[in-house]
Each structure stands twice: as structure tokens, then as C-alpha cells.
Amino acid sequence: MRTRSTTDRECPYCGHEFRLEECCVVSKPGRRTRTVNAVHGQSVHQAANSLDGASRGEEEPALSDSEPQNSTEAQQTGVLYNPASAAPPDTKQAGLVKWLSWSSGPSTQMPTFPLLSSFDPALLPRRRCPKCLETLPVQIDDMPTRIVSIVGLNVAGKSNFLGAAMHLARSGGLEEFGVTEFSADPDTATTFQANYYLPLFRQGEELKGTAKDWDVARKPLSFSVTLDGSQFLLVTHDVSGELLVDHDSRAIGAGFVRRSLGIVFILDPTEFDDLRATLPPEQLEVDRPIDQAELLGQVLGELTYRNVPVAITIAKSDLLAKMCRGASFLDDRTPGPVTTAQLQTVSDEVKDFLVSVGQKKIVDIATAYGRCTFHAVSSLGTDKSHIAIRGVKPVRVLEPLGVVLRRMASGLN
Ligand SMILES: Nc1nc2c(ncn2[C@@H]2O[C@H](COP(=O)(O)OP(=O)(O)O)[C@@H](O)[C@H]2O)c(=O)[nH]1
Ligand SMILES: [Mg+2]
Ligand SMILES: [Zn+2]
């Protein structure tokens, strides 16, 4: 067994554990590259200013960590640095200066590999997972990754929750949970703005359904988070329910879920028979291929790590207004410090509500698992017919995320 090191990381796509120094550095795929200069004596490429190669559908050659690294081969593969054939590091590299300040502490040893900041940014340098060969988030040099997965049936409300919660979090909403920084990774910032923030909060539109995408693992949304003074890269994915509900497709296309360190499990209340009877037909979602209690049981049973905090979260709580008159989870919390007592009250209310609408099985699965809290959110604040008038006004969307992050950080119950 090897000792733990500050360069230990886990691949957010395949879960492989590696050290930064074991990774090749490549030019981010999808950009055209040309050879321009060298780092540590190796040939490297520069991203062309245009995307013409990508738009003409030119594919980059398949990459492999065993590739020889002479200049001709590097030109063909986009590999900027390969530890297998690296020359000893040049201690004058700018990246090493950064390393020394970064790793100040008992071990101020020299790195035996160049940091991403050693490369010309125009090369779009990214480390590559030694196992699945996917390019890793750009901030992987600076902090470890922690996967938090948002899981639930198709059309349960996952994407709208993700958009609302992450936006409010990056606006400082998790401060009461001890989060002093929450900002999108450079690779995520523009995607998040275009696909989540603008439609929800500027155009006042609910997010449209998520297509089943076998490649979703390669499209993480990453946020740099500082919690209680420790920084990490929160990695999540907007997965379609279709990929999550079936054991086989979950294993093949969403393997990162089992490696999660935190789970927000979204429950769709329109699946509760007692509620269905009260809702107009247009608010009832399509028939689902699996019962959500069974999906919860399967997902919890597959988790790799022990004691992963799970926030069981009823979405679309605005639909429960008539059924749960007086419940505190229906309204947004009054501003001010969040207390454990308030969170406990909501958790108990939601648990009681689930039992009262015939969903005791969900509560039993959660109780048997142990580390679950219960929440209710409305990501839109209203049903779709009223968004155009009211705009999107999320209710309590930060609580599941805040509680999961706190429990991940503290190891407390
Ligand atoms: N009433 C209400 N409907 C919601 C809310 N959030 C999502 N929905 C509805 O649920 C549908 C599915 O949401 P989506 O986030 O795409 O679900 P996903 O498939 O789990 O990602 C949307 O089209 C909305 O109509 C909410 O807060 N309130
Ligand atoms: Mg979705
Ligand atoms: Zn990997």
C-alpha cells in the first residue's frame, strides 16, 4: 500500500485513484492543435484560434498512455507531456514556483512533474486519467475532487434543482453552512450560464428534459468549493433519469454515481398515489419504469464508500400546498443563521408526510441505510403554468446541498 500524498486524486469519470504525476498532459480534445514549442524537452501543440477542425468533424486520434513521445507521434496524439518519457523537471519552470507556495508545509519537496500552469494556456493543457483516458477538470492540480450526485427518476426535477441550487450556491447562499467559496470551474462556467442560469433566472423558463446521453460522465459540472477552510472541486453530472433507473445503464453510463461522496436523491411527488388523485392530468408525469423507493434502495446498495450522506428530497413542493397546509417546508426559510433544530423539524415533517402518503418504504430504506436527512424543495417555486408570471423563485433548494456538504466535510451525523 502506498502512503497518501498531496497529489492523490480520484478520476471523476471512472473513479480510478491516481497521482497527478502519473498523468499525461494533453491538449483539451475538440480544439485543433499545432506544434509550437516544448516543455521539458517534449514536443507540444498549440490550439489553433479556430474550431474549424472540430466543425468539419475531424476527429482526434485515439489516445493511449503507452504512446511513444517523439515529436511526430506527439503531433498526432495531442500529448503535451508523458511521465513515462519525461526529462527531469526544470526547476526554473513557473509552475514549480507555484508548487512551492502551494505545498508549503512539512513537505516542500520538488514535484517531479510539471503543473498545468507550466504550459502555454493556449495549448488548453489538461491532465488525462491514466485509466479511462478522459481529460480531467482544469482545476485538478489545485484541489481534490468530490463527487456529489443528483439522482432520481426521469422528469423528477433533477435538472431544475441542479440549476437553481448551484446558482444560489454560487451567489453565496451556502455561507450559513460554512461555505465561503462556491464558483464554477473554468470549463463549467459558460455551460452553466448558458444551460441553467440564463433560461431559469433571466428568461424565466423551466429547463427542458435531459436527453439520455451515454457520454454524460465526460460532461461534469465542476465547482470550486471552500468549506471550513478546505478547498475541493465539487463534481456533479446532469444525468437523464433514463440512464439512472436501469441497473445496467447506470453501471455503464453513470458509474460515477457509485463513487459519490454525497447524494441528493430527488423524489417526484407526482408518483405518490394519494397526491395523483388531487392533481390535474397535465401535472402528472409519464409512467415511470421503476418505483422510486426501489431505485433509492438500489443506488444506496451500490455506493462504494461507507457513510455517504444522502439528502432525500421531495421536489415540486409547490404541488403539496393543499395537502400539507401549515408545513414549514412549504415556505422559504426566513433569512438568518440556519439551525440544526430547523433542519430537524423539516426532516421530521417530510418523513411524516411520506408515511402519510403511503411511502413508508422510502423512510424504511433510509432508516436502514442510516445517514439520510429529509428535505422538500420547489426549484421553480410554482408550477410551470405560472412561471411566466411569477418568474422562478426557488424554495429551500440550498438545504439538501448544504447539509450534504456539511456532513461530507465533518463526518458528523
Ligand atoms: N410544479 C413544479 N414543477 C417542477 C418543478 N421542478 C421541475 N418541475 C417539473 O418537472 C419537469 C421535469 O423537471 P426536470 O428538472 O427536467 O427533471 P429531470 O428529468 O429529473 O431532470 C419540468 O418540466 C417541470 O415541469 C418545481 O419546482 N415545481
Ligand atoms: Mg434532467
Ligand atoms: Zn478515469
Description:
By secondary structure, the chain is α/β, with parallel strands linked by helices. It folds into 2 domains: 8-137, no CATH class; 145-410, Rossmann fold (3-Layer(aba) Sandwich). It starts with 7 loop residues before the first strand and ends with a helix. The protein has helices spanning 52-55, 71-77, 94-102, 158-173, 186-202, 241-245, 247-253, 273-276, 292-302, 340-356, 360-369, 384-390, 398-410, and strands at residues 8-10, 17-19, 24-27, 33-39, 42-47, 79-81, 125-128, 145-152, 179-184, 221-227, 230-236, 262-267, 310-314, 372-376. It has 13 helices and 14 strands. Strand 10 and strand 11 form a beta hairpin. Helix content is 31%, strand content 18%. Mean pLDDT is 83; it is low at 32-76 and 91-108. It is globular. The structure holds guanosine-5'-diphosphate, magnesium ion and zinc ion (ZN). The site of zinc ion has 8 residues, from loops.
